[in-house]
Write a structure and sequence with these properties.
The structure is a single chain. The protein is mainly α and 67 residues long. The chain has a single domain (2-66), classed as Orthogonal Bundle (434 Repressor (Amino-terminal Domain)), CATH 1.10.260.40. It contains five helices and two strands; from the N terminus they run E-H-H-H-H-H-E. The protein has helices spanning 7-14, 18-25, 29-36, 45-55, 59-62; strands at residues 2-5, 63-66. The longest helix is centred in the last third of the chain and has 11 residues, at 45-55.
Length: 67
């Protein structure tokens, strides 16, 4: 089982860049880039909460489970 983060999709719907999102949720653009490109192996609960708040979505919208 693999878990993917739908950050590309959410950013596209909101029409927001990685730099703008990083400023909005107080993270570095590099961290956002690593998350959206699947280069990170773990994400803290605080970061998840920030992303859910920024996109006004549920965890089901943010994460995708691939069998």
């Amino acid at each position: 089982m693999k878990i993917e983060i739908n950050l590309w999709e959410l950013m596209g719907k909101k029409k927001i860049t990685a730099v703008k999102l990083a400023r909005e949720i107080w993270m570095s653009p590099i961290q956002i880039s690593n998350i959206k490109n699947g280069k990170t192996t773990s994400i803290g609960l605080e970061t998840i909460a920030k992303l859910l708040t920024a996109f006004e979505c549920s965890p089901n919208d943010l994460f995708k489970i691939i069998q």
